[in-house]
């Protein structure tokens, strides 16, 4: 049976990787604390060179290879942060690195990984197929496989995060940690429970991928779908990690997509920090379930910042829609001269800016003499949009407002 890493292993890992990874800050967020009704501390692992915590575990693993293993090289399967971590530190240490990625992996991730000096092999349409091919290359070429989470040396490296958090904020009584395969929370829980036995460890999974919760709670929740938190979208957690989670994690929570989006947007707006969906999952849980954390000293890990810029833009605009600052209105009007002018005059009176307009005359159930004017608009606050809808209605226009969810 694989050895479970201990607190001593994690302290050794911290000494081993010191100076080669960023000792990221653990900062108190006054604004988020006020919103949540709890004292919130954030660990900014998105400030690592590759913008994710994965460097810690990957480097701890690579530094323990023999000279012969280093010479042969390593292989890993990943479409994201683990790939870049292994590639970056492999090049630093002079170790040949092969990364197997699924064929649909965005080219930006492929090029970033190649930019760190790795040989990238595209194989299969899913991670499982890429993983199987990586294990095949391991056997055929005598490479050493670096697992993204189910490895005691990788877990020990990730556990160094807890050492830093509790050194910077020893008063923390809850740690909220995202779960994918379980390597991050296994390392953090092992260290935190050994240092401070009374601390509570809460794991967080995306609602669409409750893999670890299904194992630990013996439930059978469905798994799959498009999630913003692709970094924790795992269908099968590790075998070593599930043992550690069962022993050291107090409970596992699930968070909905809209809550993850909200957390990503708040971190940009309040902390001025770009965090990917998986990295924001812990904060999403705290904000979505405030009664479970109210009045407590809560730390969470912003474990990665690798989010596509176009996707981030969509998230931020959708947040403005949910806040009521951007709206799309469908306004029924007579198709005659002056109708649009009457509508825009009301927008002007309410101080609401028109972003885009469209007329729909054909594909509508209205009489042939009528039209639908679809207007996308932006205002200073939600009250201005509400005022606008009220005045349009008072003026005799029928108004429908598009909703996100």
UniProtKB/TrEMBL annotation:
<dbReference type="InterPro" id="IPR002912">
    <property type="entry name" value="ACT_dom"/>
</dbReference>
<dbReference type="InterPro" id="IPR005789">
    <property type="entry name" value="Thr_deHydtase_catblc"/>
</dbReference>
<feature type="domain" description="ACT">
    <location>
        <begin position="328"/>
        <end position="405"/>
    </location>
</feature>
<protein>
    <submittedName>
        <fullName>Threonine ammonia-lyase</fullName>
        <ecNumber>4.3.1.19</ecNumber>
    </submittedName>
</protein>
<dbReference type="GO" id="GO:0009097">
    <property type="term" value="P:isoleucine biosynthetic process"/>
</dbReference>
<dbReference type="InterPro" id="IPR001926">
    <property type="entry name" value="TrpB-like_PALP"/>
</dbReference>
<dbReference type="GO" id="GO:0003941">
    <property type="term" value="F:L-serine ammonia-lyase activity"/>
</dbReference>
<dbReference type="InterPro" id="IPR050147">
    <property type="entry name" value="Ser/Thr_Dehydratase"/>
</dbReference>
<dbReference type="InterPro" id="IPR045865">
    <property type="entry name" value="ACT-like_dom_sf"/>
</dbReference>
<keyword id="KW-0456">Lyase</keyword>
<dbReference type="GO" id="GO:0006565">
    <property type="term" value="P:L-serine catabolic process"/>
</dbReference>
<comment type="similarity">
    <text>Belongs to the serine/threonine dehydratase family.</text>
</comment>
<dbReference type="InterPro" id="IPR044561">
    <property type="entry name" value="ACT_ThrD-II-like"/>
</dbReference>
<dbReference type="InterPro" id="IPR036052">
    <property type="entry name" value="TrpB-like_PALP_sf"/>
</dbReference>
<dbReference type="GO" id="GO:0006567">
    <property type="term" value="P:L-threonine catabolic process"/>
</dbReference>
<dbReference type="Pfam" id="PF00291">
    <property type="entry name" value="PALP"/>
</dbReference>
<dbReference type="Pfam" id="PF01842">
    <property type="entry name" value="ACT"/>
</dbReference>
<keyword id="KW-0663">Pyridoxal phosphate</keyword>
<dbReference type="GO" id="GO:0004794">
    <property type="term" value="F:threonine deaminase activity"/>
</dbReference>
